[in-house]
Design goal:
It comes from Candidatus Giovannonibacteria bacterium RIFCSPLOWO2_12_FULL_44_15. This is Translation elongation factor-like protein. InterPro entries: Transl_B-barrel_sf. By secondary structure, the chain is an all-beta fold. The protein has one domain: Translation factors (Elongation Factor Tu (Ef-tu), domain 3, Beta Barrel), CATH 2.40.30. It is built from no helices and ten strands. The strands form two sheets. It has an eight-stranded antiparallel beta sheet, with no helix packed on it. The N and C termini lie close together (6 Å).
Length: 83
């Protein structure tokens, strides 16, 4: 499967390692994502996800979700679903 763009980081909370992502496609917990901004990129697995501080297991295009990441994601980073 090729990488599929699923959203963009609109905010990153440094102290708690959480990125807010505006989705352009669906995302579920357990999905593997790649976060890219310029030459910086890393992959991670979505372990937990929230919408309006409520835990959810999936979200669809148009929603803003908060996901915990293992590394810092800069605002404007593009998020891809990968395999």
């Amino acid at each position: 499967m090729a990488d599929i763009q699923i959203g963009k980081v609109t905010h990153y909370y440094d102290k708690i390692h959480v990125a807010v992502v505006k989705l352009t496609d669906k995302l579920s917990t357990g999905d593997k994502v790649k976060v890219v901004k310029g030459d910086n990129e890393f992959t991670d697995v979505v372990g937990s996800m929230q919408i309006n501080k409520e835990d959810v297991s999936s979200a669809k295009a148009g929603e803003e979700v908060a996901i915990m990441l293992s590394k810092a994601a800069k605002e404007g980073s593009i998020v891809y679903k990968t395999d």
